[in-house]
Amino acid sequence: MPADGAQILESAGLFAQGRPWAELGRVALLLSLPGRVPQEDLAAVIEEAYRTGDLGEKQAVLRALPHLPEPQCFVAIAAEGARANALSIFEALASHNLYPATHFSDPALNQLVMKALFNDVPLRTVLGLKPRMNADLVRIARDYGNERRAAGRPISEDLAMLEAESFSS
To answer: What is the pTM of this model?
Structure first.
Protein backbone atom coordinates (compact mmCIF):
# COMPACT_ATOMS: atom_id res chain seq x y z
CA MET A 1 0.00 0.00 0.00
CA PRO A 2 1.42 3.44 -0.82
CA ALA A 3 2.49 5.52 2.16
CA ASP A 4 -0.35 7.97 1.61
CA GLY A 5 -2.89 5.11 1.72
CA ALA A 6 -1.45 3.84 5.00
CA GLN A 7 -1.44 7.38 6.42
CA ILE A 8 -5.06 7.85 5.40
CA LEU A 9 -6.11 4.64 7.14
CA GLU A 10 -4.03 5.40 10.21
CA SER A 11 -5.49 8.89 10.54
CA ALA A 12 -9.00 7.44 10.18
CA GLY A 13 -8.27 4.99 13.02
CA LEU A 14 -9.11 2.00 10.86
CA PHE A 15 -5.90 0.02 11.49
CA ALA A 16 -6.69 -0.05 15.20
CA GLN A 17 -10.03 -1.72 14.49
CA GLY A 18 -8.38 -4.79 12.92
CA ARG A 19 -10.41 -4.49 9.73
CA PRO A 20 -9.73 -7.06 6.95
CA TRP A 21 -7.10 -5.95 4.41
CA ALA A 22 -9.58 -6.03 1.52
CA GLU A 23 -11.86 -3.62 3.36
CA LEU A 24 -8.93 -1.39 4.31
CA GLY A 25 -7.84 -1.26 0.68
CA ARG A 26 -11.31 -0.26 -0.45
CA VAL A 27 -11.55 2.42 2.25
CA ALA A 28 -8.10 3.74 1.32
CA LEU A 29 -9.19 4.05 -2.31
CA LEU A 30 -12.31 5.95 -1.30
CA LEU A 31 -10.40 8.24 1.06
CA SER A 32 -7.87 8.99 -1.67
CA LEU A 33 -10.59 10.35 -4.00
CA PRO A 34 -10.63 13.92 -2.63
CA GLY A 35 -8.04 15.79 -4.65
CA ARG A 36 -8.24 13.22 -7.46
CA VAL A 37 -11.90 13.75 -8.27
CA PRO A 38 -13.30 17.27 -8.66
CA GLN A 39 -15.03 18.28 -5.42
CA GLU A 40 -18.33 18.85 -7.23
CA ASP A 41 -18.26 15.22 -8.47
CA LEU A 42 -17.13 13.54 -5.24
CA ALA A 43 -20.59 13.01 -3.73
CA ALA A 44 -21.87 11.43 -6.96
CA VAL A 45 -18.85 9.10 -7.15
CA ILE A 46 -19.30 7.99 -3.53
CA GLU A 47 -23.04 7.49 -4.02
CA GLU A 48 -22.43 5.44 -7.19
CA ALA A 49 -19.89 3.29 -5.34
CA TYR A 50 -22.48 2.56 -2.67
CA ARG A 51 -25.44 2.01 -5.00
CA THR A 52 -23.62 -0.34 -7.38
CA GLY A 53 -21.18 -1.94 -4.96
CA ASP A 54 -21.19 -5.44 -3.57
CA LEU A 55 -21.40 -6.05 0.18
CA GLY A 56 -17.72 -5.32 0.73
CA GLU A 57 -17.85 -2.12 -1.29
CA LYS A 58 -20.92 -0.91 0.59
CA GLN A 59 -19.18 -1.63 3.90
CA ALA A 60 -16.13 0.34 2.78
CA VAL A 61 -18.24 3.33 1.74
CA LEU A 62 -19.99 3.38 5.12
CA ARG A 63 -16.68 3.13 7.01
CA ALA A 64 -15.21 5.95 4.91
CA LEU A 65 -18.10 8.42 5.39
CA PRO A 66 -16.92 10.20 8.55
CA HIS A 67 -13.51 10.77 6.99
CA LEU A 68 -14.66 12.29 3.69
CA PRO A 69 -14.91 16.03 3.09
CA GLU A 70 -18.37 17.41 3.82
CA PRO A 71 -19.60 14.18 5.42
CA GLN A 72 -23.03 15.70 6.07
CA CYS A 73 -23.68 15.26 2.32
CA PHE A 74 -23.87 11.50 2.80
CA VAL A 75 -26.70 11.19 5.35
CA ALA A 76 -28.98 9.49 2.78
CA ILE A 77 -26.37 6.80 2.10
CA ALA A 78 -25.83 6.28 5.83
CA ALA A 79 -29.59 6.06 6.42
CA GLU A 80 -29.80 3.36 3.76
CA GLY A 81 -26.97 1.50 5.50
CA ALA A 82 -28.87 1.74 8.78
CA ARG A 83 -31.89 0.11 7.12
CA ALA A 84 -29.88 -2.66 5.45
CA ASN A 85 -30.94 -6.24 6.00
CA ALA A 86 -27.37 -7.49 5.62
CA LEU A 87 -25.87 -7.39 9.11
CA SER A 88 -22.36 -6.74 7.74
CA ILE A 89 -23.56 -3.54 6.08
CA PHE A 90 -25.44 -2.40 9.18
CA GLU A 91 -22.40 -3.11 11.38
CA ALA A 92 -20.13 -1.10 9.05
CA LEU A 93 -22.22 1.93 9.93
CA ALA A 94 -23.27 1.15 13.51
CA SER A 95 -20.10 -0.37 14.93
CA HIS A 96 -16.83 1.54 15.37
CA ASN A 97 -18.07 4.40 13.18
CA LEU A 98 -18.61 7.96 14.41
CA TYR A 99 -20.83 8.91 11.49
CA PRO A 100 -24.22 8.15 13.12
CA ALA A 101 -23.36 10.01 16.34
CA THR A 102 -22.13 13.06 14.47
CA HIS A 103 -24.64 13.28 11.62
CA PHE A 104 -27.87 11.44 12.51
CA SER A 105 -30.89 13.13 14.06
CA ASP A 106 -31.97 11.82 17.46
CA PRO A 107 -34.81 9.70 15.98
CA ALA A 108 -32.46 8.19 13.36
CA LEU A 109 -29.79 7.44 15.97
CA ASN A 110 -32.40 5.97 18.33
CA GLN A 111 -33.59 3.66 15.54
CA LEU A 112 -29.99 2.58 14.84
CA VAL A 113 -29.40 1.83 18.54
CA MET A 114 -32.57 -0.24 18.80
CA LYS A 115 -31.67 -2.16 15.64
CA ALA A 116 -28.25 -2.81 17.17
CA LEU A 117 -30.00 -4.26 20.24
CA PHE A 118 -32.27 -6.46 18.08
CA ASN A 119 -29.23 -7.75 16.18
CA ASP A 120 -26.96 -8.26 19.21
CA VAL A 121 -24.49 -5.62 18.04
CA PRO A 122 -22.74 -4.55 21.27
CA LEU A 123 -23.64 -0.97 22.18
CA ARG A 124 -20.06 -0.37 23.37
CA THR A 125 -19.15 -0.40 19.66
CA VAL A 126 -21.66 2.36 18.81
CA LEU A 127 -19.23 5.26 19.01
CA GLY A 128 -20.43 8.53 20.51
CA LEU A 129 -23.61 7.01 21.93
CA LYS A 130 -23.25 8.17 25.54
CA PRO A 131 -23.36 11.93 24.80
CA ARG A 132 -26.26 11.39 22.39
CA MET A 133 -28.43 9.42 24.83
CA ASN A 134 -31.86 10.99 25.11
CA ALA A 135 -35.14 10.49 26.94
CA ASP A 136 -36.90 9.07 23.87
CA LEU A 137 -34.24 6.38 23.46
CA VAL A 138 -34.57 5.40 27.12
CA ARG A 139 -38.38 5.28 26.80
CA ILE A 140 -38.17 3.10 23.67
CA ALA A 141 -35.66 0.80 25.39
CA ARG A 142 -37.88 0.48 28.45
CA ASP A 143 -40.88 -0.38 26.29
CA TYR A 144 -38.81 -2.99 24.47
CA GLY A 145 -37.58 -4.40 27.79
CA ASN A 146 -41.14 -4.61 29.10
CA GLU A 147 -42.21 -6.50 25.95
CA ARG A 148 -39.33 -8.96 26.35
CA ARG A 149 -40.15 -9.54 30.02
CA ALA A 150 -43.85 -10.05 29.24
CA ALA A 151 -42.85 -12.68 26.66
CA GLY A 152 -40.53 -14.38 29.14
CA ARG A 153 -37.45 -13.50 27.11
CA PRO A 154 -34.04 -12.53 28.50
CA ILE A 155 -32.83 -8.94 28.74
CA SER A 156 -29.33 -8.20 27.42
CA GLU A 157 -26.85 -6.19 29.48
CA ASP A 158 -27.01 -3.47 26.82
CA LEU A 159 -30.78 -3.21 27.09
CA ALA A 160 -30.58 -3.13 30.89
CA MET A 161 -28.02 -0.32 30.64
CA LEU A 162 -30.32 1.73 28.39
CA GLU A 163 -33.32 1.10 30.64
CA ALA A 164 -31.34 2.31 33.67
CA GLU A 165 -30.54 5.71 32.15
CA SER A 166 -32.46 8.63 33.60
CA PHE A 167 -32.98 12.13 32.30
CA SER A 168 -34.42 15.15 34.01
CA SER A 169 -37.16 16.94 32.13
So the answer is: 0.86
Segments of the chain with pLDDT less than 50: 1-3, 169
The string of pLDDT tens digits covering residues 64-89 is 999 999 999 999 999 999 999 999 99
Of all helices (H) and strands (E), which one includes residue 49? helix 39-52
Residue 146 and residue 139: Cα distance in Å, rounded?
11
161: left (phi over 0), alpha (psi -120 to 50) or beta: alpha
Task: Look at residue 128 and give its three-state secondary structure.
Answer: coil
User: So what's the pLDDT on residue 3?
Assistant: 46
Dist CA 29 CA 111 (whole Å): 30
Q: What single letter denotes the amino acid at residue 79?
A: A
| Nearest 10 degrees: Cα torsion 114, 117, 123, 125 | -100
Produce one character per residue of 116-143: b if its CB has 16 or more CB atoms within 10 Å, e if not: bbeeebebeebbebeebbeeebbebbee
Report the b/e string of 68-90 with b at 16+ CB within 10 A.
beebeebbebbbbbbebeeeebb
Identify residue 25 by its one-letter amino acid code. G
